[in-house]
Amino acid sequence: MAATTKKRSAESQSGPEPKKAKKTDVATRKLETAKKAKRSIPVTVTSFPANDTGDSEDEDEFDDAEDDVDFDDQAVDDDTMKIDSGEVEGKTSARESHIAQKVLQQSRKAAKPHSDLISEAKRVWALARSQSISAKERKKHIVELMNVVRGKVKLIVFKHDASRIIQTLVKHGGKSERVEICEELEGSYAESAKNRYAKFLILKLIRLLPSHRTNIISSFHGEILSRSRLLLHREASGVLADAFELYANSAQRAGMVREFYGKEVALFSQKQQDDQEKGQKGLVGVLETLGSDKEKKARVLAAVKENLASVFNNPDKGAVRHAIVHCATWEYLDVLGTMQDHGNADEMKEAEKMRRDLFENCTELLPEMVHTKDGSRVAREFLARGSAKDRKTILKTLKPHIERMCLDDEAQMVLFTAMDVIDDTKLIQKSVTSIITTSETLNTLIESPQGRRAILYLLLPRSRRFFTIAQIRALGDTDNARDGVGLGSKQGSEEGGTITGEGTSKKSPEVRQEEVRRGASEALLKWVEERGAELVREAAEGLVVGDIILYTEGDKTSAFQALLKALATPYPSPDISSSTSHLLDLPYASRLYKTLLQGGHFNHYLKSVETGSNWNPTAFAVDFVKIVGGDDGAVIKDICTKGKRNGSFVVAQLCGALVREDASFDKDSVKEAREKLKEWLSTSETRKAIEEGAKDGAKGIKVLLDGIGKL
């Protein structure tokens, strides 16, 4: 007979209670308003590992929930249960084993240092971190928690659960609590940064306590590359990276980078702190301070070279991807470039040797560097000053990451410079263009501003319509090395005038751009043929489609006919949503077709149209009449006479394109299209319907009538 078991009756479940309104104190609101910054992500990874940076309290908030629960309090009432006699022995032994394990666990916890302190702190911590309490209640619990740990922060901060307790105090406490904790930790910031758990507390203090930020960052001086070697420490390097990239000001960053200059500069700088202006100029400023002492300069450069080598020779430490390393590397390369451009023969030879050594050290690591401003500049300098073999090596290293680089503001600048300086455009086509212009990659790139810039650079490099002045200037930084233009040295020119030497590239920029454009054209036009009708329904995507049509080379007939077929639908559309409405009812789409018919974009400064280099608007106009108009011109007439008449400007431009003289196109085809259009729009009935649009407030009616009159 089966055993009968009496179970406790379950409580009624009427569904979850409604969520309480979330109440937050002033400090928490400020925290939510100022979202925590994130440092830039290398193109070799999609996101940072969980232990690299972030908030350990948020990540592991409930990891120790069971540690706070006393299972022994949930005693089992044996009298309320009837258990089959055959199961008594097994159940009893299991229960006794559980009790024994619990006793052992508690005895181990009690044996640990500061167990009573941590136990009491965790009790109050559970109340203080609750998300369902008022600001007043939270403040009360924070004060109580601070009283529990006061004077003992340094004793418990290295334990994983206790560290999160202190983080809660910093996160939800006021300035007084943060200052008190910071002062208790003074003298052990570097040690805390190396701890797997305490490092998150140091980051919180740097982020949330600006008044003590300078002291914390200054405490790292002398520890970054010597003594503790924090930069090469698995845990501490992330703290340095965040401090440098996200929170330090220019003076603090300069002080951190100064660690790369060697011990001699560190001692020297302590005696020359009044010269702050030169100190903030980085390595260049330090060398200026040394004056004409060539031996000291050589020792400083040797120290920088050695320290950079220690980073590049230990890529598994993760320091290679940090902005502080990229900044030091660029300062070093910048000095070497100046020596090559302005030095005497011996200095030029020595600088080239040092640049070559650095290149060989970090070539394979360039993908880890291109995501920061300085790291990108380093890669671009290697491209600009490198030989054809060097450039090929760089592209081979970057090739697996091309798509990810296109989506990064700084990394894409490396690809743009490669297109600007590499004469072997077949190599560009094979290693860069062929990857960017695959359908899958284009579909990804078109969705972001960075990706759209990468597409457009193939056709319109450094165009002011798509690239900011700052971006164009940054891209121009490598032009002198490419073209062999620089300032003369004392030996080359006593007056310091501009001289032109042997550049690292032979082709003219115009020829190189034309070859890159030609290599990308076929794939881009094929993509427009496949997706153009869909893309022109979006403003930014439509601009890219328009410029592909205007500036690519080759047969564009299939591509622009795909755009015209999208117009050959009844007007007006019964559905006014942007996904199904007629294209001419979308202002940006209407402007696109008008631009194609007029031959290019209108330059407001020059007050004229900048015609596309490889575009024939007459051919587009003839096919417009043939495809959109059909046999009876119904759609074209409806565009001008029904609905909001949003096609008036487009049809007016169509008339202008057909009356414009074009010796390169078949005159008979143009004449036939012009006569068809005139026949459709010049009837009294159609003209009357067009004129009535002016009474309804439609725009472009006068322009349209003038255009019809020219047919």
TrEMBL record:
Ranges of residues in domain CPL: 503-604
Biased composition (Acidic residues): 54-78
Skewed-composition ranges (Basic and acidic residues): 17-35, 79-99, 504-515
InterPro entries named among the record's database cross-references: ARM-like, ARM-type_fold, CPL_dom, PUM3, Pumilio_RNA-bd_rpt
GO MF annotation list: mRNA binding
Start-end of Gly residues biased regions: 485-500
Pfam families listed in its UniProt record: CPL (PF08144)
GO cellular component: nucleolus
Keywords (A to Z) from UniProt: Repeat, RNA-binding
Region (Disordered): 1-114, 483-515
GO biological process: regulation of translation
Protein name in UniProt: Armadillo-type protein
